[in-house]
Amino acid sequence: METDYKGRIGNLIRDARKHRRLTQHQLAELLATSQSAINRIEKGHQNLSLEMLARIGAALDSEIVALGAGPTHLRVTGPTTLSGSIEVKTSKNAGVALLCASLLNRGRTTLRKVARIEEVNRLLEVLTSLGVQTRWLNDQNDLEIIPPAELDLTKIDEDAARRTRSVIMFLGPLLHRSDSFDLPYAGGCNLGTRTVEPHMSALRPFGLEVKATDGMYHAQVNRAVEPGRPIVLTERGDTVTENALMAAALHPGTTVIRNASSNYMVQDLCFYLQKLGVVIDGVGSTTLRVTGCERIDVDVDYSPSEDPIEAMSLLAAAIVTKSSITITRVPIEFLEIELATLEEMGFRYTRTEEYVAANGATRLVDLTTSASDLTAPLDKIHPMPFPGLNIDNLPFFAAIAAVAEGQTLLHDWVYENRAIYLTELNKLGAQVKLLDPHRVLVEGPTHWSGAEIVCPPALRPAVVILLAMLACKGTSVLRSTYVIHRGYEDLAERLNLLGANIETFRDI
Asked: What's the CA gap between 294 and 278, in Å, rounded?
């Protein structure tokens, strides 16, 4: 039994390490131990102290163990039929981008209804350490941000910075504030890898050069360098586009960005920058023309739009449980392909006329779902850059396909190995076959039954498992759910308001 327990912990550590894109050698360096020790730990052949478990958890930003209170788990009793109405919260990814962009403004930024999630909390800790005043204004989650006259980059909260994937988006705003600065980063993001090099190529035209050593980005800015021709992004990434936009916002000339992402969080950032006085043509397209300001010092009030990924989560909850619920404030323009795909599978729903979000631009509707019998689509389901099916919405189709008659092929060509976590649905009775690191074949319909599962380290697959548990007969347990809190605010509590039976608990 003891060996089995060590093996489970080892598997959890291995999965979290791979999710952070770290090799065993890189994790060993972070922990000042040997690669062979990490290998033994992951195979369950090593005794571990609580101190070592806590250090591994901190290095991997995964709640493998929490000293004191202990990790939180969810107990789900089903099967569930949901009913009632639920409002979509504002976009997590837009909120994160806007927090970074607030560094461009020397005046006060007030953001309305910000998602109060762990990723936002970490960024607020980083901003506070730089001398930025931040405070929640009310229970509506309105957030006020007031920067100091000068940022003190020497006092950055390294621990908080390493626990957020978003710190790389400080490069664009900060290159205008200092000729040289250091930013901590989470291990594994070495220059030249897919995650970082596109940022460098987008920001070099503004004079930024970055060397990555010892877990720090060492940034130097050559003020003589300015964009002389259009910046062509080698990858149509959301955060890469946002970094280029923020760099262009304080460049007083006109910058053209080609192959830009036109995804929801990028559009929200554009609308915020326009309020700051930046002129941007082409919002919603792949070519952005940005005329920046030499200095930005305005008091601005902005409302980020609703989160299409959360809206898709709620749709999936209704479909998997064959429930009729009303989902309000759905950002329809970022879910049109998903809904068209669901309609082909036999999903039935009604929708209101479109109305405009509080940002004055994004189109919203209210959707009411109907219990529907689904069949597998004729073609595979795969993501594409906006206006295609969103990569973060793809995992939800695993649970949806599991309740549909026939075989569905899901192709996640973007992320290495994220698809593997979807096979955890098999423990609940699904038939999900992993074909390779990018493709799974799902056969339905499924007779769901409860099981105990350790939360995978990837956010969307973790939520997919939780939603499938709603349809399971009997009791299910989802262990160590910190990753869900990174991207969702009070998800279990809000599902309970619709009739779910989800209990949060800790081990004694």
From this structure: 10
Contact 346, 373 (CB under 8 A): yes
Q: Which helix (H) or strand (E) holds 398?
A: helix 396-402
SS3 (DSSP) at 259: coil
pTM of the entire structure? 0.84
d(CA 90, CA 40): 43
**84: β partners:** 325
SS3 330: strand
- Three-state DSSP class for 9? helix
Predicted confidence (pLDDT) per residue in 361-378, tens digit: 999 999 999 999 999 999
Per-position DSSP letters for 271-321, written without gaps between them: HHHHHTT-EEE-TTSSEEEEE--S-----EEE---B-HHHHHHHHHHHHHT
Q: pLDDT value at position 30? A: 84
**What is the separation of C-alpha 189 from the centre of its chain, rounded to a whole number of angstroms?**
17
Buried b or exposed e, range 340-367, using 16+ CB within 10 angstroms: ebbeebebebeeeeeeebbbebbebbbb
